[in-house]
TrEMBL record:
GO terms for molecular function: RNA endonuclease activity producing 5'-phosphomonoesters, hydrolytic mechanism; single-stranded RNA binding. This is Endonuclease V. It comes from the Eukaryota. Its main location: cytoplasm. It comes from Lunasporangiospora selenospora. InterPro entries: Endonuclease-V. It is found in: Cytoplasm. Pfam families: Endonuclease_5. The keyword Nuclease applies. Coiled coil: none annotated.
Amino acid sequence: MTDTPLDTNASNEQGGTQYSIPTQTQKQEWAAQQSALKAGLVLEDDHPDWSITFKQDCSSYYAEHTQGIKYVGGVDLSFIVSNNEDAIASLIILSFPSLKVVYEDHAKVKLTLPYIAGYLAFREVGPLQALVQNLRTNRPELEPQVIFVDGCGILHPRGFGLASHLGLLTGIPTIGCSKNFLVIHGDGDVLGSSPTEIKVRFRDYLAQNANTAEGMMLLQGTVTGKVYGAALSASTSRVAEGAQNPIYVSVGHKLSLETAVALVRACSQYRIPEPIRQADLKSRKEIRKWCEELAKTKTARSNHSNNNGQSSSRSSNSSNNSGSNKETGKR
């Protein structure tokens, strides 16, 4: 494991930073940036060094054979419970298809923006991009063929979520895997009235199409019919949980939805794809270690302060006693 300090234009010191609340003008500028960057997205399979052969006897969203995929990556951020500023950004690399962790890198970061739905990348993409660059510098042979991102790809109000943003900046194919659904209402299309409505629709769809759904429902705009992604219960061993709490899979960059879903299935032992699950588990572990360090530092400072106080008290008492003795001698 490496633990490399990152230059992410944010202090790594504990405490002191206040969130900068974006103005409406700032949000409009971000939206314009997303729209401009979106033009560079590749929403089809564009990875000449690896390929997937799909199963023919069922949905085309299952991989029968893969060639050239050696490593898959996962990224995530975890936060100290007491605030949403101090975070650990993590990049985990797993071998494929064994899904064994072969590399992990973590960085302490201080985020200066709050979470705003639809603008997550402007808060988190910097540290994640820096971790990818560290990997390329220190262990280039472990660069993954695809990165799983805990966030949205094109299943996003402006079609450009964190997974798409990171994929475009790094040039690595990315898959968006979100636990939460973002309603799409704009650009001439509508998808979902609420996250709850989508969950209910998914549950009902699986019940009505038990023999053919295979744990997946395409997410299509009601106006244009455009497919933005898929609600998915990726782990066949946890179908009941998946039906209640699907993950939302979408293309990030340089992949087709068929390939994205097939890889999510191939990398899922539980509800969450293993690359993201490991990034989450290990970033939380680093958070616990950080909190323990902070607690030790706080205790040491408290003890030092108490010792200084006791020392001052002893010095004062000694001075008073000395003065008292002198006065007694005079009498």
